[in-house]
Amino acid sequence: MTANLRDLKILSTARVTGNGLLLRPWDPDSGADVEAWLRGNTDPEFRRWNTPITPVTDRAAAEDSLRVRTARALEGSAASFVIEDAGSGTPLGHIGINDIRPFMATARVGYWVLPEARGHGVATRALGLVADWGFGELGLHRMELDHAVGHEVSCRVAERCGFRYEGTMRGAVFQAGRKDAWRDAHLHARLATDPAPKPHPKR
Question: What is the pTM of this model?
């Protein structure tokens, strides 16, 4: 049911530009996309803070993972974007709108940045773009994101983009590299009616 959202068919083809970035759908048939997805998912810093239910450990798994994400976009439940430098087309990371709940007009956001692209405000610029797109183009009412307690960089990104800290969720995410132990997570959220945060220029 999509009573409170606009047409979700755009999830599989949307392209969002601004802040020196291009956000476009991942392509499982692109060798470059598969390689970037694999590098991001196997990066030690990513693994420090994230424990995927289905780990991506090789190219075949990376391709399969991207095909799943493409299917979710086609069915209207999520959108996964490559973060690219708008000028060069260099992949910088990933940002996704996940767990879209149409009737409540809510969704969750997740992101990561490749090692060589860190320290340049990529996550902040991408999150600002995807928030504006989610509220404006999709008609979302509320967007949430969470991160493991201790991930201060992600906390700052959320706050810079107007995602207010709402509390600590106990035992909400897996411990690094484990699926039999949990850790707490911070919950952040932004409403369509919240004041827009001050823009953060490209660094």
Answer: 0.93
